[in-house]
Amino acid sequence: MPSSAYVHIPFCRRRCYYCDFPVSVVGDKATGSTSGTMEQYTEVLCQEIETTPRGESALETVFFGGGTPSLLSVEQIERILKTLDRHLGIAAYAEISLEMDPGTFNLEQLKGYQQAGVNRVSLGVQAFQDELLAVCGRSHNVTDIFAAVELLGQVEVPDWSLDLISGLPHQTLEQWQGSLETAVKLAPTHISTYDLIVEPVTAFARQYTPGDRPLPTDEMTAQMYRLAQQILTGAGYQHYEISNYALPTHQCRHNRVYWENLPYYGFGMGAASYLDGRRFTRPRTRREYYAWVQQLIEAGGVLDCPVTSAADILLETLMLGLRLADGLNLSKLTQKFGEKTVQQIWTSFQPYYQRNWVEMKSENGTPIAGQDVQQLPLTGQLRLSDPEGFLFSNTILADVFSQLS
Ligand code: SF4
Prior knowledge:
Layout: E1 4-9, E2 11-12, E3 24-25, H1 36-51, E4 59-66, H2 74-87, E5 90-100, H3 107-116, E6 120-126, H4 130-136, H5 142-155, E7 159-166, H6 173-186, E8 190-195, H7 203-207, H8 218-234, E9 238-241, E10 244-246, H9 253-259, E11 265-267, E12 272-275, E13 278-281, H10 286-298, H11 310-321, E14 328-329, H12 330-337, H13 339-354, E15 358-361, E16 367-368, E17 381-384, H14 388-391, H15 393-404
Parallel strand pairs: 1-4, 1-11, 2-3, 4-5, 5-6, 6-7, 7-8
Antiparallel strand pairs: 8-10, 9-10, 12-13, 14-17, 15-16, 15-17
The structure holds iron/sulfur cluster.
Protein backbone atom coordinates (compact mmCIF):
# COMPACT_ATOMS: atom_id res chain seq x y z
CA MET A 1 0.00 0.00 0.00
CA PRO A 2 1.20 3.56 -0.62
CA SER A 3 3.08 5.43 2.07
CA SER A 4 3.54 8.62 0.02
CA ALA A 5 1.19 11.41 -1.00
CA TYR A 6 1.55 14.15 -3.61
CA VAL A 7 -0.67 17.21 -3.03
CA HIS A 8 -1.07 19.64 -5.93
CA ILE A 9 -1.55 23.34 -5.15
CA PRO A 10 -2.30 24.87 -8.55
CA PHE A 11 -1.95 28.61 -7.90
CA CYS A 12 0.75 30.84 -9.38
CA ARG A 13 1.13 34.61 -9.52
CA ARG A 14 1.64 34.38 -13.27
CA ARG A 15 2.42 31.63 -15.76
CA CYS A 16 6.12 31.21 -16.57
CA TYR A 17 6.69 31.14 -20.33
CA TYR A 18 7.99 27.54 -20.37
CA CYS A 19 5.36 26.01 -18.07
CA ASP A 20 2.57 23.63 -19.10
CA PHE A 21 1.61 22.51 -15.57
CA PRO A 22 -2.03 22.60 -14.47
CA VAL A 23 -2.06 26.00 -12.72
CA SER A 24 -4.50 28.86 -12.10
CA VAL A 25 -3.01 32.34 -12.42
CA VAL A 26 -4.03 34.53 -9.45
CA GLY A 27 -1.91 37.66 -9.91
CA ASP A 28 0.56 39.27 -7.52
CA LYS A 29 -1.82 40.17 -4.70
CA ALA A 30 -3.87 37.05 -3.93
CA THR A 31 -2.80 34.98 -0.93
CA GLY A 32 -4.39 31.94 0.62
CA SER A 33 -6.21 33.52 3.53
CA THR A 34 -7.79 36.35 1.52
CA SER A 35 -8.60 34.53 -1.70
CA GLY A 36 -11.99 32.82 -1.93
CA THR A 37 -10.66 30.72 -4.82
CA MET A 38 -7.81 29.27 -2.73
CA GLU A 39 -10.09 28.70 0.23
CA GLN A 40 -12.62 26.82 -1.90
CA TYR A 41 -9.82 24.74 -3.44
CA THR A 42 -8.47 23.82 0.01
CA GLU A 43 -11.95 22.71 1.05
CA VAL A 44 -12.46 20.50 -2.01
CA LEU A 45 -8.94 19.07 -1.70
CA CYS A 46 -9.66 18.08 1.92
CA GLN A 47 -12.92 16.46 0.79
CA GLU A 48 -10.99 14.40 -1.74
CA ILE A 49 -8.57 13.25 0.98
CA GLU A 50 -11.46 12.39 3.32
CA THR A 51 -13.08 10.27 0.60
CA THR A 52 -9.94 8.18 0.00
CA PRO A 53 -9.99 4.72 1.61
CA ARG A 54 -7.33 4.37 4.30
CA GLY A 55 -4.25 2.24 3.54
CA GLU A 56 -2.42 -0.08 5.94
CA SER A 57 0.64 2.09 6.51
CA ALA A 58 0.98 5.71 7.58
CA LEU A 59 2.46 8.25 5.15
CA GLU A 60 6.24 8.45 5.21
CA THR A 61 6.44 11.26 2.67
CA VAL A 62 4.12 14.13 1.73
CA PHE A 63 5.01 16.50 -1.10
CA PHE A 64 3.17 19.80 -1.70
CA GLY A 65 3.93 20.64 -5.33
CA GLY A 66 2.52 23.12 -7.76
CA GLY A 67 1.94 25.65 -8.73
CA THR A 68 3.22 27.65 -5.84
CA PRO A 69 2.17 26.00 -2.56
CA SER A 70 3.68 28.90 -0.58
CA LEU A 71 0.76 31.04 -1.81
CA LEU A 72 -1.45 29.10 0.63
CA SER A 73 -1.68 30.39 4.19
CA VAL A 74 -0.15 28.52 7.12
CA GLU A 75 -3.66 27.65 8.31
CA GLN A 76 -4.55 26.10 4.94
CA ILE A 77 -1.37 23.99 4.75
CA GLU A 78 -1.95 22.92 8.37
CA ARG A 79 -5.56 22.01 7.60
CA ILE A 80 -4.50 19.81 4.66
CA LEU A 81 -1.81 18.11 6.78
CA LYS A 82 -4.27 17.49 9.63
CA THR A 83 -6.76 15.99 7.17
CA LEU A 84 -4.05 13.72 5.76
CA ASP A 85 -3.04 12.70 9.28
CA ARG A 86 -6.60 12.01 10.40
CA HIS A 87 -7.50 9.95 7.33
CA LEU A 88 -4.29 8.29 6.20
CA GLY A 89 -1.93 8.83 9.15
CA ILE A 90 1.44 10.62 8.92
CA ALA A 91 4.45 8.81 10.42
CA ALA A 92 6.40 10.70 13.11
CA TYR A 93 9.58 10.62 10.98
CA ALA A 94 7.81 11.56 7.70
CA GLU A 95 9.50 13.82 5.14
CA ILE A 96 7.08 16.70 4.44
CA SER A 97 8.19 18.88 1.50
CA LEU A 98 6.75 22.17 0.32
CA GLU A 99 7.64 23.91 -2.94
CA MET A 100 8.11 27.64 -2.41
CA ASP A 101 8.89 30.49 -4.76
CA PRO A 102 11.12 33.43 -3.76
CA GLY A 103 9.05 36.52 -2.99
CA THR A 104 5.96 34.58 -1.87
CA PHE A 105 6.69 34.06 1.84
CA ASN A 106 7.98 35.84 4.95
CA LEU A 107 9.62 34.68 8.17
CA GLU A 108 6.40 34.28 10.12
CA GLN A 109 4.86 32.18 7.36
CA LEU A 110 7.94 29.98 7.11
CA LYS A 111 7.92 29.36 10.87
CA GLY A 112 4.21 28.56 10.65
CA TYR A 113 4.74 25.97 7.89
CA GLN A 114 7.47 24.39 9.99
CA GLN A 115 5.25 24.23 13.05
CA ALA A 116 2.58 22.60 10.89
CA GLY A 117 5.11 19.83 10.09
CA VAL A 118 6.95 20.93 6.94
CA ASN A 119 10.60 19.83 7.25
CA ARG A 120 11.82 20.16 3.67
CA VAL A 121 11.62 23.14 1.31
CA SER A 122 12.11 23.11 -2.43
CA LEU A 123 12.91 26.61 -3.65
CA GLY A 124 12.14 27.46 -7.30
CA VAL A 125 15.19 29.53 -8.28
CA GLN A 126 15.86 28.58 -11.95
CA ALA A 127 18.69 31.10 -12.60
CA PHE A 128 20.82 33.70 -10.83
CA GLN A 129 20.63 36.31 -13.62
CA ASP A 130 17.78 38.84 -13.67
CA GLU A 131 17.81 38.93 -17.47
CA LEU A 132 17.24 35.14 -17.68
CA LEU A 133 14.49 35.25 -15.03
CA ALA A 134 12.79 37.93 -17.15
CA VAL A 135 13.17 35.80 -20.31
CA CYS A 136 11.34 32.99 -18.47
CA GLY A 137 8.56 35.25 -17.17
CA ARG A 138 9.37 34.35 -13.55
CA SER A 139 7.64 36.47 -10.92
CA HIS A 140 10.80 36.96 -8.83
CA ASN A 141 14.27 38.44 -9.27
CA VAL A 142 17.73 37.57 -7.93
CA THR A 143 17.34 39.84 -4.88
CA ASP A 144 14.20 37.86 -3.95
CA ILE A 145 16.19 34.61 -4.18
CA PHE A 146 18.86 35.78 -1.72
CA ALA A 147 16.18 37.12 0.64
CA ALA A 148 14.37 33.74 0.52
CA VAL A 149 17.60 31.83 1.24
CA GLU A 150 18.31 34.17 4.16
CA LEU A 151 14.89 33.33 5.63
CA LEU A 152 15.52 29.58 5.24
CA GLY A 153 18.81 30.07 7.09
CA GLN A 154 17.09 31.90 9.94
CA VAL A 155 14.69 29.04 10.67
CA GLU A 156 17.30 26.33 9.95
CA VAL A 157 15.18 24.14 7.70
CA PRO A 158 16.91 20.73 7.95
CA ASP A 159 16.54 19.97 4.25
CA TRP A 160 16.21 22.40 1.40
CA SER A 161 16.58 22.11 -2.31
CA LEU A 162 17.19 24.63 -5.03
CA ASP A 163 16.06 24.18 -8.67
CA LEU A 164 17.98 25.43 -11.69
CA ILE A 165 17.20 25.29 -15.42
CA SER A 166 19.74 24.92 -18.22
CA GLY A 167 19.18 25.34 -21.95
CA LEU A 168 17.25 28.64 -21.61
CA PRO A 169 17.01 31.10 -24.52
CA HIS A 170 20.04 33.42 -24.57
CA GLN A 171 21.70 31.48 -21.70
CA THR A 172 25.48 31.23 -22.06
CA LEU A 173 27.78 28.57 -20.65
CA GLU A 174 29.32 31.24 -18.39
CA GLN A 175 25.91 32.18 -16.97
CA TRP A 176 25.15 28.51 -16.32
CA GLN A 177 28.49 28.11 -14.57
CA GLY A 178 27.72 31.24 -12.52
CA SER A 179 24.35 29.82 -11.43
CA LEU A 180 25.88 26.49 -10.42
CA GLU A 181 28.69 28.15 -8.44
CA THR A 182 26.29 30.53 -6.69
CA ALA A 183 24.03 27.60 -5.80
CA VAL A 184 26.99 25.75 -4.27
CA LYS A 185 27.92 28.83 -2.21
CA LEU A 186 24.41 28.99 -0.77
CA ALA A 187 24.93 25.39 0.43
CA PRO A 188 21.48 23.80 0.02
CA THR A 189 21.30 20.11 0.96
CA HIS A 190 19.88 19.25 -2.47
CA ILE A 191 20.09 20.72 -6.00
CA SER A 192 17.88 19.87 -9.00
CA THR A 193 19.05 20.82 -12.49
CA TYR A 194 16.54 20.54 -15.33
CA ASP A 195 17.24 20.89 -19.01
CA LEU A 196 14.58 23.08 -20.64
CA ILE A 197 12.03 21.22 -22.74
CA VAL A 198 9.99 23.48 -25.02
CA GLU A 199 6.54 22.02 -24.38
CA PRO A 200 3.75 22.54 -26.92
CA VAL A 201 1.09 25.11 -25.93
CA THR A 202 3.54 27.30 -23.99
CA ALA A 203 4.66 30.84 -24.76
CA PHE A 204 8.15 29.43 -25.46
CA ALA A 205 6.73 27.07 -28.11
CA ARG A 206 5.22 30.05 -29.93
CA GLN A 207 8.48 32.00 -29.69
CA TYR A 208 11.26 29.45 -30.16
CA THR A 209 12.17 26.36 -32.18
CA PRO A 210 14.29 23.72 -30.39
CA GLY A 211 17.84 23.64 -31.76
CA ASP A 212 17.55 27.20 -33.22
CA ARG A 213 19.01 30.33 -31.70
CA PRO A 214 18.54 31.91 -29.20
CA LEU A 215 18.06 28.42 -27.71
CA PRO A 216 21.41 26.68 -27.16
CA THR A 217 22.46 23.94 -29.58
CA ASP A 218 22.32 20.27 -28.55
CA GLU A 219 26.10 20.35 -28.16
CA MET A 220 25.87 23.35 -25.81
CA THR A 221 23.15 21.74 -23.65
CA ALA A 222 25.28 18.59 -23.42
CA GLN A 223 28.19 20.76 -22.25
CA MET A 224 25.90 22.35 -19.66
CA TYR A 225 24.91 18.91 -18.37
CA ARG A 226 28.55 17.81 -18.06
CA LEU A 227 29.46 21.09 -16.36
CA ALA A 228 26.73 20.63 -13.73
CA GLN A 229 27.94 17.10 -13.04
CA GLN A 230 31.52 18.31 -12.68
CA ILE A 231 30.82 21.34 -10.45
CA LEU A 232 28.22 19.74 -8.19
CA THR A 233 29.95 16.40 -7.63
CA GLY A 234 33.19 18.36 -7.12
CA ALA A 235 31.43 20.26 -4.32
CA GLY A 236 30.43 17.02 -2.56
CA TYR A 237 26.92 16.51 -3.97
CA GLN A 238 26.05 12.97 -5.02
CA HIS A 239 24.54 12.72 -8.48
CA TYR A 240 21.87 10.26 -7.37
CA GLU A 241 19.38 10.79 -10.21
CA ILE A 242 19.65 12.11 -13.78
CA SER A 243 18.57 15.64 -12.72
CA ASN A 244 19.17 15.56 -8.97
CA TYR A 245 22.12 16.02 -6.64
CA ALA A 246 22.16 15.70 -2.85
CA LEU A 247 24.57 15.87 0.04
CA PRO A 248 24.94 12.42 1.66
CA THR A 249 21.70 11.41 3.50
CA HIS A 250 19.73 14.28 1.92
CA GLN A 251 18.14 12.61 -1.13
CA CYS A 252 14.47 13.39 -1.66
CA ARG A 253 12.67 10.36 -0.21
CA HIS A 254 9.40 11.31 -1.87
CA ASN A 255 10.77 11.50 -5.40
CA ARG A 256 12.55 8.15 -4.95
CA VAL A 257 9.11 6.59 -4.63
CA TYR A 258 8.35 7.64 -8.23
CA TRP A 259 11.68 6.43 -9.59
CA GLU A 260 11.37 3.10 -7.79
CA ASN A 261 7.90 2.75 -9.38
CA LEU A 262 6.20 2.35 -5.98
CA PRO A 263 2.55 3.28 -5.35
CA TYR A 264 1.55 6.76 -4.15
CA TYR A 265 -1.57 8.83 -3.54
CA GLY A 266 -2.19 11.95 -5.60
CA PHE A 267 -4.55 14.71 -4.49
CA GLY A 268 -5.67 17.89 -6.22
CA MET A 269 -6.25 19.29 -9.67
CA GLY A 270 -4.17 17.54 -12.35
CA ALA A 271 -2.43 15.30 -9.77
CA ALA A 272 -1.50 11.75 -10.76
CA SER A 273 -1.78 8.76 -8.42
CA TYR A 274 -0.59 5.15 -8.68
CA LEU A 275 -2.74 2.88 -6.56
CA ASP A 276 -3.46 -0.87 -6.82
CA GLY A 277 -1.56 -1.02 -10.13
CA ARG A 278 -3.68 1.80 -11.62
CA ARG A 279 -2.36 5.15 -12.77
CA PHE A 280 -4.85 7.97 -12.80
CA THR A 281 -4.56 11.69 -13.55
CA ARG A 282 -7.19 14.07 -12.19
CA PRO A 283 -8.84 16.76 -14.39
CA ARG A 284 -6.60 19.73 -15.16
CA THR A 285 -9.07 22.58 -14.66
CA ARG A 286 -10.60 23.64 -11.31
CA ARG A 287 -14.19 23.33 -12.47
CA GLU A 288 -13.70 19.81 -13.84
CA TYR A 289 -11.71 18.78 -10.77
CA TYR A 290 -14.46 19.98 -8.40
CA ALA A 291 -17.09 18.05 -10.42
CA TRP A 292 -14.86 14.98 -10.35
CA VAL A 293 -14.48 15.14 -6.53
CA GLN A 294 -18.30 15.25 -6.25
CA GLN A 295 -18.53 12.12 -8.41
CA LEU A 296 -15.83 10.47 -6.30
CA ILE A 297 -17.79 11.20 -3.13
CA GLU A 298 -20.96 9.76 -4.69
CA ALA A 299 -19.00 6.65 -5.78
CA GLY A 300 -17.67 6.13 -2.22
CA GLY A 301 -14.07 6.99 -3.12
CA VAL A 302 -13.66 4.25 -5.73
CA LEU A 303 -11.80 5.21 -8.90
CA ASP A 304 -12.77 3.53 -12.13
CA CYS A 305 -9.66 3.10 -14.30
CA PRO A 306 -7.82 0.18 -15.94
CA VAL A 307 -4.94 -1.74 -14.32
CA THR A 308 -1.53 -1.02 -15.92
CA SER A 309 -0.51 -3.98 -18.14
CA ALA A 310 2.54 -6.11 -17.27
CA ALA A 311 4.31 -4.89 -20.44
CA ASP A 312 3.79 -1.25 -19.44
CA ILE A 313 4.97 -1.94 -15.86
CA LEU A 314 8.19 -3.40 -17.30
CA LEU A 315 8.85 -0.35 -19.51
CA GLU A 316 8.01 2.05 -16.65
CA THR A 317 10.32 0.15 -14.28
CA LEU A 318 13.20 0.42 -16.77
CA MET A 319 12.54 4.07 -17.65
CA LEU A 320 12.20 5.23 -14.04
CA GLY A 321 14.79 2.94 -12.42
CA LEU A 322 17.52 3.89 -14.88
CA ARG A 323 17.10 7.55 -13.87
CA LEU A 324 18.72 6.57 -10.56
CA ALA A 325 22.49 6.29 -10.18
CA ASP A 326 21.86 2.97 -8.37
CA GLY A 327 20.13 1.71 -11.51
CA LEU A 328 18.15 -1.51 -11.56
CA ASN A 329 18.72 -4.60 -9.48
CA LEU A 330 18.74 -7.48 -11.93
CA SER A 331 17.92 -10.13 -9.30
CA LYS A 332 14.77 -8.23 -8.33
CA LEU A 333 13.93 -7.70 -11.99
CA THR A 334 14.26 -11.45 -12.59
CA GLN A 335 11.96 -12.22 -9.64
CA LYS A 336 9.33 -9.85 -11.03
CA PHE A 337 9.55 -10.39 -14.79
CA GLY A 338 11.37 -13.73 -15.25
CA GLU A 339 14.80 -14.80 -16.45
CA LYS A 340 13.94 -14.78 -20.16
CA THR A 341 12.78 -11.15 -20.06
CA VAL A 342 15.88 -10.03 -18.15
CA GLN A 343 18.11 -11.85 -20.65
CA GLN A 344 16.28 -10.01 -23.46
CA ILE A 345 16.73 -6.68 -21.66
CA TRP A 346 20.43 -7.31 -21.22
CA THR A 347 20.85 -8.25 -24.90
CA SER A 348 19.35 -4.91 -25.94
CA PHE A 349 21.63 -2.99 -23.56
CA GLN A 350 24.84 -4.76 -24.67
CA PRO A 351 25.86 -2.28 -27.46
CA TYR A 352 25.65 0.54 -24.88
CA TYR A 353 27.64 -1.46 -22.33
CA GLN A 354 30.38 -1.83 -24.92
CA ARG A 355 30.25 1.92 -25.51
CA ASN A 356 30.55 2.62 -21.73
CA TRP A 357 27.12 4.27 -21.56
CA VAL A 358 25.80 1.38 -19.47
CA GLU A 359 27.59 -0.17 -16.50
CA MET A 360 27.19 -3.28 -14.40
CA LYS A 361 27.99 -3.56 -10.71
CA SER A 362 28.19 -6.78 -8.75
CA GLU A 363 25.84 -7.44 -5.82
CA ASN A 364 28.46 -5.98 -3.45
CA GLY A 365 28.73 -2.76 -5.50
CA THR A 366 32.06 -3.46 -7.27
CA PRO A 367 32.09 -2.24 -10.89
CA ILE A 368 32.32 -5.06 -13.42
CA ALA A 369 34.37 -3.93 -16.41
CA GLY A 370 36.16 -5.45 -19.36
CA GLN A 371 34.38 -8.80 -19.19
CA ASP A 372 32.88 -10.69 -22.07
CA VAL A 373 29.24 -9.53 -22.20
CA GLN A 374 28.07 -13.12 -22.65
CA GLN A 375 29.73 -14.16 -19.36
CA LEU A 376 28.29 -11.47 -17.11
CA PRO A 377 26.14 -12.74 -14.23
CA LEU A 378 22.72 -11.07 -14.42
CA THR A 379 22.46 -10.52 -10.67
CA GLY A 380 23.99 -7.11 -9.85
CA GLN A 381 23.00 -3.53 -10.67
CA LEU A 382 22.47 -2.36 -14.25
CA ARG A 383 22.95 1.42 -14.47
CA LEU A 384 23.64 4.26 -16.88
CA SER A 385 27.12 5.79 -16.66
CA ASP A 386 27.52 9.33 -15.34
CA PRO A 387 27.52 11.68 -17.19
CA GLU A 388 27.51 10.09 -20.69
CA GLY A 389 24.89 7.36 -20.12
CA PHE A 390 22.59 9.82 -18.33
CA LEU A 391 23.09 12.36 -21.09
CA PHE A 392 22.04 9.91 -23.81
CA SER A 393 19.36 8.13 -21.75
CA ASN A 394 16.58 9.05 -24.19
CA THR A 395 18.44 7.55 -27.14
CA ILE A 396 19.32 4.40 -25.20
CA LEU A 397 15.81 3.86 -23.85
CA ALA A 398 14.10 4.55 -27.19
CA ASP A 399 16.28 1.89 -28.81
CA VAL A 400 15.86 -0.65 -25.99
CA PHE A 401 12.07 -0.12 -25.88
CA SER A 402 11.74 -0.61 -29.64
CA GLN A 403 13.48 -3.99 -29.26
CA LEU A 404 11.34 -5.04 -26.28
CA SER A 405 7.93 -4.04 -27.62
S1 SF4 B 1 5.91 29.02 -10.77
FE1 SF4 B 1 6.27 26.90 -11.42
S2 SF4 B 1 4.22 25.99 -11.67
FE2 SF4 B 1 3.96 28.24 -11.58
S3 SF4 B 1 3.89 28.86 -13.70
FE3 SF4 B 1 6.02 29.05 -13.01
S4 SF4 B 1 6.99 27.08 -13.52
FE4 SF4 B 1 4.76 26.80 -13.66
